[in-house]
């Protein structure tokens, strides 16, 4: 007998750098203590393929190590940082065709605090000399610089070549690249002091050369990109310049090879900085030219005062160039300038991540698109591009989520071809958008907190799990075709979220095929029954049309009223009332009473593919049909007899008289007069035997008890 892995369901950790999307299409993200591997563009839509185990605490940050020239860059390793104070390097074993066969090749030890950010080289060409440069930032107030060298197929040698003390100015983001047209590494560090520190490597050590001011809050994300010229010089300018004058002297000319640094901050703003080489003939007049540019591009005092009020502390809008001198490998000294290029305003809340669109081919040549993706807690992602006519950076595209109890996006990234963008949010769920094409992006999903219980329905057609994330999630197979080969495939997905609660869910059991009972950190057991929309959608996704005969007597759907904990059933007459109300002035008040997110269309919609997160949050609830009372404290466990007649449950026992098992009649939902008494401490598990003749209970008093079912002869 062979056992194979069919499906993995897990959510992404709620951290800003917990997700990375590699050049070869593989995505990696932190999933509790593990690193999950996921192919978002998999033609079979299999979701998470594997998890890498090794960390002993939460994974805080994940990224890929790249090597190669221009578009030939490949992912050679995954780097993960954790609250266990270590970072780990994972690499794929050579000669193994399995895309998910990765092993831990090195453990980076030395930090005394949680590793919160990782920086790796991102450049037009990353030299493949058998070595890799990376940096880790930690809550211990240090940044460590590491050099990785491959030993064999399973081991790497990683050496800490430098430790940078930053004190209480904790690093929140790190980005590494090469200075324009050189192989000299440059590192940018965003910190809790609201500044961006610039380091340049000299004699194999990073020296701090500059501190960039401007942001008014923590700098949460940094990303480098190398500018490529499209035949002519391209001019970009700060959007704040567009309201002053149309004079071309306000433009900052970008040359081929210039390095662009984008920074995103909790002050809601995005800044772009330009790093470029300065010729010796120009360096003598650089300060004078910089002052002239600043003077000509100055805002009026009224507008500057307005922007200062927006940032609450004085906006740093200076376009003055900062000059740095760097000694190259040839012992030649070269001068570079760092200048503020653009200020991007548009988000209404913290900007958590920014990400340049990956390079592509244009007219057969390497091209870096001037396209920047930002993700924010205002529930939106924006794609920024310079206007073709003026060069002003504008919000070209905006996507996001509507409704649900979410707190925006923690991160977002472009796919390797630039046609897809993927984000993840507070619920650990992924969201996918595409620019063109007919493909349907079915994102991975799963619990983002500990799973406390799960159970199959009596026919083993689907299963439901409950978690400390206060949800019950339903999973079933989806029969469809492979987008590439056209072959028939069956993959598992989350297709419904029957319960979204206000208490941590602890236990669940089915009393029949369409009814389950769940217990949470409250004194009440809740009973849920499947609506018509779920039965129809399950039949459509699984191809089992025989279950449609059981849908007619059920409510159409369910809705969770504002400030409520009980899912209310919605019937056909409610749908008719909602449609009629849309044509009256009472529509808004009717919506507030009947539905917070559901619409007549969504309530009767039959799914043809697994739903997106927004649909799961609002349109897949099951109606709550009963509440079972009797317990005095939070529920611990529940089980149903196989014949569906009895429900057994237990709660936390603060006193011996609460350490009992209570029985409920599944026909009347009434409690039996006498509970089952045997234990003195909390009963942690109850289970009916296959024939329902016996009921087994186990307790924290180190005893287990067996109760026998005896039919009443009367």
Automatic annotation (TrEMBL):
Gene3D superfamilies: YVTN repeat-like/Quinoprotein amine dehydrogenase. The lineage of its organism: Eukaryota, Fungi, Fungi incertae sedis, Mucoromycota, Mortierellomycotina. The gene is ELP2. GO terms for biological process: tRNA wobble uridine modification. Belongs to the WD repeat ELP2 family. GO terms for cellular component: cytoplasm; elongator holoenzyme complex; nucleus. InterPro entries: Elp2, WD40/YVTN_repeat-like_dom_sf, WD40_PAC1, WD40_repeat_dom_sf, WD40_rpt. Keywords: Cytoplasm, Nucleus, Repeat, tRNA processing, WD repeat. It is found in: Cytoplasm; Nucleus. It comes from the Eukaryota. This is Elongator complex protein 2. WD repeats lie at residues 52-100, 108-147, 260-283, 444-476. The keyword Metal-binding does not apply. Pathway: tRNA modification; 5-methoxycarbonylmethyl-2-thiouridine-tRNA biosynthesis.
């Amino acid at each position: 007998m062979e056992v194979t892995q069919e499906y993995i369901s897990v959510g992404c950790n709620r951290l800003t750098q917990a997700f990375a999307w590699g050049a070869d299409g593989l995505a990696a993200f932190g999933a509790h203590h593990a690193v999950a591997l996921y192919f978002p563009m998999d033609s079979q839509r299999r979701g998470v393929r594997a998890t890498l185990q090794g960390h002993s605490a939460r994974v805080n940050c994940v990224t890929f190590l790249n090597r190669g020239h221009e578009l030939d860059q490949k992912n050679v390793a995954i780097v993960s940082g954790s609250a266990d104070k270590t970072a780990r390097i994972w690499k794929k074993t050579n000669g193994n065709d399995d895309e998910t066969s990765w092993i831990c090749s090195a453990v980076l030890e030395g930090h005394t605090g949680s590793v919160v950010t990782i920086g790796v080289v991102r450049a037009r060409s990353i030299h493949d000399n058998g070595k890799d440069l990376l940096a880790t930032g930690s809550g211990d107030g240090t940044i460590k610089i590491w050099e990785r060298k491959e030993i064999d197929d399973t081991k790497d040698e990683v050496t800490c070549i430098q430790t940078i003390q930053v004190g209480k100015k904790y690093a929140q983001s790190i980005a590494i690249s090469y200075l324009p047209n050189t192989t000299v590494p440059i590192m940018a560090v965003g910190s809790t002091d609201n500044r961006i520190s610039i380091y340049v490597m000299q004699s194999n050590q990073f020296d701090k050369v500059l501190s960039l001011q401007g942001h008014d809050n923590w700098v949460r994300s940094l990303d480098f990109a190398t500018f490529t010229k499209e035949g002519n010089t391209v001019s970009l300018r700060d959007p704040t310049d567009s309201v002053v004058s149309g004079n071309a002297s306000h433009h900052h000319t970008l040359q081929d090879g210039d390095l662009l640094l984008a920074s995103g901050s909790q002050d809601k703003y995005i800044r772009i900085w330009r790093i470029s080489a300065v010729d010796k003939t120009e360096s003598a007049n650089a300060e004078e030219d910089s002052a002239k540019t600043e003077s000509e591009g100055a805002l009026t005092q009224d507008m500057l005062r307005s922007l200062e009020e927006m940032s609450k502390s004085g906006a740093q809008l200076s376009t003055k160039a900062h000059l740095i001198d760097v000694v190259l490998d040839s012992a030649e000294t070269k001068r570079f300038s760092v200048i503020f290029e653009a200020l991007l305003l548009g988000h209404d809340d913290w900007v958590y991540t920014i990400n340049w669109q990956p390079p592509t081919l244009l007219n057969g040549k390497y091209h870096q698109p001037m396209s920047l993706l930002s993700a924010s807690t205002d529930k939106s992602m924006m794609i920024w591009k310079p206007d073709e006519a003026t060069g002003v950076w504008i919000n070209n595209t905006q996507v996001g989520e509507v409704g649900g109890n979410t707190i925006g996006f923690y991160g977002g990234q472009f796919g390797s071809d630039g046609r897809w963008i993927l984000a993840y949010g507070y619920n650990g769920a992924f969201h996918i958008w595409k620019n063109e094409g007919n493909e349907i992006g079915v994102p991975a999903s799963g619990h983002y907190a500990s799973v406390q219980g799960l159970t199959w329905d009596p026919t083993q057609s689907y299963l439901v799990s409950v978690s400390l994330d206060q949800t019950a999630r339903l999973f079933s197979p989806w029969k469809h075709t492979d987008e590439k080969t056209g072959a028939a495939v069956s993959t598992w997905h989350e297709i419904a979220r029957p319960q979204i609660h206000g208490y941590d869910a602890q236990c669940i059991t089915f009393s029949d095929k369409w009814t389950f009972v769940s217990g949470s950190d409250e004194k009440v057991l809740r009973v849920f029954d499947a609506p018509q929309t779920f039965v129809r959608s399950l039949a459509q996704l699984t191809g089992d049309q025989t279950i449609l005969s059981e849908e007619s007597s059920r409510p159409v759907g369910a809705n969770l009223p504002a400030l409520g904990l009980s899912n209310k059933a919605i019937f056909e007459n409610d749908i008719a009332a909602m449609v009629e109300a849309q044509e009256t002035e009472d529509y808004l008040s009717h919506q507030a009473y009947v539905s917070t997110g559901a619409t007549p269309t969504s309530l009767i919609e039959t799914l043809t593919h697994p739903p997106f997160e927004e649909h799961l949050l609002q349109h897949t609830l099951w109606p709550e049909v009963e509440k079972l009372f009797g317990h005095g404290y939070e529920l611990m466990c529940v089980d149903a007899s196989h014949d569906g007649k009895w429900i057994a449950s237990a709660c936390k026992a603060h006193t011996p008289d609460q350490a009992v098992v209570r029985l409920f009649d599944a026909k009347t939902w009434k409690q039996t007069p006498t509970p089952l008494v045997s234990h003195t401490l909390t009963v942690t598990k109850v289970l009916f035997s296959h024939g329902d003749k016996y009921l087994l209970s186990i307790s924290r008093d180190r005893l287990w008890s067996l109760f026998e079912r005896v039919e009443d002869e009367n």
